Amino acid sequence: MSWLLGGGGSSQRRSGIITVLDIGSSKVCCIIAKLLPNEGGVALSHRSHRIKVIGIGHQKSEGVKSGVIVNLEKAEQAIRLAVDAAERMAGLTVESLIVNVSAGRLKSEPASATISLGGHQVSTVDVNKVLLAGARQALRAEREVVHSLAVGFVLDSERGIRDPRGMVGETLGVDMHVVTADSVPLRNLELCVNRAHLAVEMMVATPYASGLATLVDDEAEMGAACVDMGGGTTTISVFVEGKFVHCDVLPVGGHHVTMDLARGLSTRLEDAERLKVMHGSALPTSADDRSLVSIQPIGADEHEQPLQVPRSVMSRIIRARVEETLELVRDRLNRSGYGHLVGRRVVLTGGASQLTGLPEAARRLLGRNVRLGRPLGVMGLPEAAKGAAFAAPVGLLIYPQVAAFESRNVRGGGFLMRATGTGGRLQRVSQWLRDSF
């Protein structure tokens, strides 16, 4: 149960503390929160508990590129600083935490399995057995299972059963969504956290977390896509009938827009980032040719006058990269086979989605209704952390409440064995959430 406990003491066990770590390409964020009894709500009825943030720390990311650890020492230092700031604010010590993952070429695969019941009632043991059989099908050499989620159970010939426990039948089947990733990037991610004297209790796919944080129940039930545009990656998650059914990752994000600007305008990266945030737009305006922006060229003396460039030059550079990214998202959605189930509902989130005019550009290129998604239903977040950039860490806080019917203990000796498994922490935490309040 330590993954729900900031530290390991009995007082923390009673208070229900959860700690999460978002290791992104642009920032590293640690949040410590307390779970409180849910008073019920219409838009977010799937959540069994309310979340109150008691500590938060975030740092500029170092040593991470497109979600992959490329410099252990720099990444470890950023993690240490973020966790330390959260610990000081919360007044407790963190030992283990839930971490997001967008590296390792995340891949969605369907799987199914069937077991014989012999006419008796379906028990939790039967459910675990069929889930494990389904998850094993998706294993490949050098791949690890990140999620194996039941999309729907089949009892004899009856499909679409959400919870078969207690029902009677001859055979129990399951249709599953299994998310796998390359082993090596996941192991390096865990190694980096371990070097900061912390334990990884769980790895959660970034697209899943972002969808949990930003989609309301009706969107997830009717079918919707959540597109999280981060610094180094853009992730896509699809939810249908309240279930996470597909994910994809593109190795392109807001940092690529900044790089294009820096190259196209011959200016430093930090100046390009400032120009993007203050003057950048994904849509052309009539004033772009008349409006001028000041640009400090690379290597220019600080006493030299900055160059004056029409904003239209900058907008064209930004638009080219944004349109390319959105076209990739559109093509991946269409290729996923779930494009028609998503209908016209797309939620944009992530730090890069805050670029001026991006929702309008997305509506035009995706041909769907697009809204900007911010983390929902969390108390105690500081004003600076209420925006779209913090969707993934908030989703990590929500994950334990929706983690029923998941099994990942499918390969002996793998590091994910420690995270969860059949009859393991995920089941215990579900029981704990039911029993605690």
UniProtKB/TrEMBL annotation:
Signal peptide: none annotated. Residues 18-214 form the SHS2 domain. GO terms for biological process: cell division. Its main location: membrane. The keyword Transferase does not apply. It is found in: Cell membrane. Pfam families: FtsA (PF14450), SHS2_FTSA (PF02491). InterPro entries: ATPase_NBD, Cell_div_FtsA, FtsA/MreB, SHS2_FtsA. It comes from the Bacteria. It is a peripheral membrane protein. PANTHER family: CELL DIVISION PROTEIN FTSA, CELL DIVISION PROTEIN FTSA-RELATED. Cell division protein that is involved in the assembly of the Z ring. May serve as a membrane anchor for the Z ring. Belongs to the FtsA/MreB family. This is Cell division protein FtsA. It comes from Chelativorans composti. The gene is ftsA.
